[in-house]
Write a structure and sequence with these properties.
Layout (H helix, E strand, L loop, with lengths): L2 E6 L3 H16 L3 E2 L8 E6 L4 H17 L4 E6 H13 L4 E3 L7 H11 L25 E4 L1 E2 L10 H5 L3 E2 L2 H14 L3 E5 L7 E2 L2 E2 H9 L6 E4 L9 H5 L9 E3 L7 H7 L5 H14 L4 E8 L6 H14 L3 E6 L17 H26 L3 E9 L4 E5 L5 E5 L9 E10 L8 E6 L1
Parallel strand pairs: 1-2, 1-3, 3-4, 4-5, 6-9, 9-12, 13-14, 14-15, 18-20
Antiparallel strand pairs: 7-8, 10-11, 16-17, 16-19, 17-18, 19-20
Helix pairs in contact: 11-12
Length: 431
C-alpha cells in the first residue's frame, strides 16, 4: 500500500482541495500518512500571498525532502503558478503541478505508479472537478464554490496566480452539499477566493446560499472569508435562518480612507462601517472577524491610528494581522515610502492587542447566552471541544452519550484561556 502525506499552507480553498484529494486517494486504497510518519509520496499544497508564505513553503518542501529522501515529492498550489520554472529547476520535486491541473493530481500520481512516469501538462485544466471529500482532515466539510479574482488590489498577487473569477455550477454545489450531509457532516463551510462575486448563469451568491439552506438535513452553513460587499437586506435576512451561522470573516485590510485608496480597494471605510451596522441590526450577536494589513506603503502614523480607531469601533472579535509584503508585479511594489520592517512589527503588535481587547469584550457580551455546539473532538482528559454557531470555541465536560460530530445545546458559563491569553474559549454547560 502506497503511503501518501499532505502538507497544506494558505487559505481555506487550499484546505478544501487537499481534503478532496486526500479523500480520493484514501478511497482508492492509498494509506494517508500521519504528521510524523514516513511517506512514499508527499504532496505540498503551497501559498504565495506574502514573502513569509513563500518562505514557509520552501521550508516545508526542504523538510519533506530531508525527512523522506526516497519519496515522490509533488508541489502544487499558488507558489507553483508564481515560481514554476524555479521549482522545476530546483530538483526538489518530482512533479510541479499548477492550480489549473491540481484536480488531476490523483490521476497524475496514480499514473506514475502504474506506468512509471506521468506528464502533468497532458491533463485537462479544471478548477472544480474535485470529488466530494468524505474522509477529511476536518470535522467541517469545506465546499469550494468559486475561484480567482478580478479586483486587482494594488498589493495582491492572487489574480496572477489564481486567474480571473470563475464560478462553479450551482447544481453541482448543491449536490456536493447534499452528498456530504448525507455522509454525516454537520457543518459545511463555503469557500472561494472572492465568493461575493459568485455568479453562475442567473444564480448569484445570495441565491446560492438560499438554495443551500433549503437542502434537507440537520446541518449548518458557515460562510468563510469574504470580500466586503453592499450586502442586500434579503441576504442579511438569511442569517435569521437556523442553518446559517451568524459569523463572517469580512476582509477590511485598512480602516483608513487614504490607505484604502492606495490599496485600490473597491469600498470606503464609511461604506464598510455602514455595512457592519446593517449586519448588527439584523443580528446584534453577529460575530465579525477580519483581515488588516499594517505597514502599507505610505501609511502614516495618523493613518495607522485611524485604522486602530476603526477596528475598535467595529469590534472585530478577531483581527488576522498581516505585515505588508512586497509582491513583484503588483502596483504597490513600486509605490514610494515603503515602511521599515521594525515599524511594521510595532504596528502589528498594537493591532494584536486591539484584537485581544475586542475579543474579550465580545466574549463578555456573549456570557450566559446559548450556543449550538458542534463537538469536533474529545480529548484524553475527558473534555469535549468544538464551536458554537457564532464561531465561539467551547469546552464542556464530556459525558458518556456525547459523540464527535454531534450537536449539543450549551450555555456559555465562564471565559477560559486554555493555552495562552489569546486562545480564549468558553466553558459550557449542557442545557
Amino acid at each position: 500500500m502506497v503511503k501518501i502525506a499532505f502538507k497544506t499552507l494558505g487559505c481555506r480553498v487550499n484546505l478544501y482541495e487537499t481534503d478532496a484529494l486526500a479523500s480520493q486517494f484514501k478511497a482508492s486504497g492509498y494509506d494517508i500518512a500521519g504528521a510524523d510518519e514516513y511517506a512514499d509520496v508527499v504532496v505540498v499544497n503551497t501559498c504565495t500571498v506574502t514573502n513569509q508564505s513563500d518562505q514557509k513553503c520552501r521550508q516545508t518542501i526542504h523538510q519533506a525532502r530531508r525527512k523522506n529522501p526516497n519519496a515522490l515529492i509533488v508541489i502544487t498550489g499558488c507558489m507553483v503558478n508564481n515560481y514554476k520554472e524555479d521549482l522545476l529547476q530546483s530538483g526538489l520535486a518530482d512533479y510541479v503541478i499548477d492550480n489549473e491541473r491540481k484536480a488531476a493530481l490523483f490521476d497524475i500520481i496514480n499514473d506514475h505508479f502504474t506506468f512509471g512516469a506521468s506528464d502533468p501538462e497532458g491533463y485537462d485544466k479544471d478548477l472544480f472537478s474535485y470529488k466530494p471529500a468524505y474522509d477529511t482532515f476536518h470535522t467541517r466539510s469545506l465546499i469550494k464554490i468559486q475561484d480567482g479574482c478580478n479586483n486587482f488590489c494594488s498589493y495582491c498577487i492572487i489574480p496572477m496566480v489564481r486567474g480571473r473569477s470563475t464560478s462553479r455550477n450551482d447544481d453541482e454545489i448543491c449536490k456536493n452539499v447534499s452528498d456530504v450531509v448525507a455522509h454525516g457532516f454537520k457543518e459545511v463551510v463555503l469557500t472561494g477566493v472572492n465568493m461575493g462575486r459568485y455568479r453562475y448563469g442567473d444564480t448569484n451568491f445570495e441565491q446560492l446560499v438560499a438554495r443551500i439552506l433549503d437542502i434537507e438535513g440537520d446541518f449548518r452553513v458557515r460562510i468563510a472569508s469574504i470580500e466586503p460587499d453592499l450586502f442586500s437586506d434579503t441576504f442579511l435576512q438569511l442569517f435569521q435562518h437556523e442553518k446559517l451561522a451568524p459569523h463572517m470573516h469580512v476582509c477590511l485590510q485598512s480602516g483608513s480612507e487614504n490607505t484604502l485608496k492606495r490599496m485600490h480597494r473597491f469600498y470606503t471605510a464609511s461604506q464598510f462601517r455602514d455595512m457592519c451596522a446593517r449586519i448588527k441590526q439584523f443580528r446584534p450577536d453577529f460575530n465579525l472577524t477580519t483581515d488588516i494589513i499594517v505597514g502599507f506603503p505610505g501609511e502614516t502614523d495618523a493613518e495607522f491610528n485611524e485604522c486602530c480607531t476603526f477596528a475598535r469601533e467595529i469590534g472585530f472579535s478577531h483581527i488576522h494581522t498581516f505585515k505588508y509584503s512586497v509582491r513583484t508585479g503588483t502596483k504597490a511594489a513600486a509605490l514610494p515610502d515603503q515602511i521599515p520592517e521594525k515599524v511594521k512589527s510595532q504596528r502589528s503588535e498594537i493591532m494584536r492587542h486591539i484584537s485581544l481587547e475586542n475579543r474579550t469584550a465580545y466574549f463578555n457580551r456573549m456570557k450566559g447566552c446559548t450556543q449550538r455546539m458542534l463537538i469536533e473532538r474529545i480529548d484524553t482528559r475527558g473534555w469535549a471541544k468544538g464551536y458554537g454557531e457564532n464561531y465561539i470555541p467551547i469546552q464542556i465536560k464530556a459525558q458518556q452519550d456525547l459523540q464527535r460530530n454531534h450537536f449539543v445545546n450549551v450555555r456559555l458559563e465562564e471565559i477560559i484561556h486554555p493555552d495562552n491569553e489569546e486562545k480564549m474559549a468558553f466553558l459550557g454547560l449542557i442545557i
